[in-house]
Amino acid sequence: MKKGKKLYEGKAKIIYATNEKNFVIQHFKDDATAFNNKKRAKIDGKGILNNRISEHILKNLGQVGIKNHLVKRINMREQLIKSVEIVPIEFIVRNIATGSLTNRLGIEDGTVLENPLIEYCYKNDELGDPLVSKEHIFTFNWATKKEIEKIDKYLHRINDFMIGMFRGIGIKLVDFKVEFGRHKSGNKNEIILADEISPDTCRLWDINSEKKLDKDRFRKNLGNVMQAYQDVARRLGILHEESNIRTVKFPKPKAVKIKKNK
User: What is the pLDDT of residue 124?
Assistant: First the structure.
């Protein structure tokens, strides 16, 4: 399959055409952005890790019945994916209160929610991706009721699966953001999971230390961004495949010598 012209460039990825209209190539960049692109940087190797982590998660979701756009990873930075018409909504699933939720509602950071909370944001960088209701979605024809019902069911299943997957490697799934799109399947449009699932789109905390292993390290100037992403990949058992990435460990705390009384 031949790589064609650039169709779209976002903050973290580029989409290229192929010689088959139902498939495109998704290229992962090293760009890191936050606060609607107000904070930007380049982190060498981030795109390689996100490509591999997202492939691993989407493959596993596909095996449990979550249809998604992934066809295959074709190199260190690119995936062959199904072409979709993206639903202009970001779907956020929260298990633990943090970030904008605590800022908006004054809820204590780290509060475990009794049930997963689903939020909908209109995809528009100029407006700051505002929070919207289902009534907004239906009124402005961004998606149908049937599509949202299907997406909501998918979101709960994705959340259940990922909570278990990450818990098994010592990580809390705090929250995550996903997108869905309409893929032409025969004469029908089929709703499938699209975009990516990676430390760029999830909040991931170490179960014991609550050390942040996601893009919050960039947002909050915590440092060690690549080390955190590498830690996630290593725990998932996939870092060994990325021979071009230089592994950097978190710095160990200095030992403190205690003098014994004579």
Answer: 94
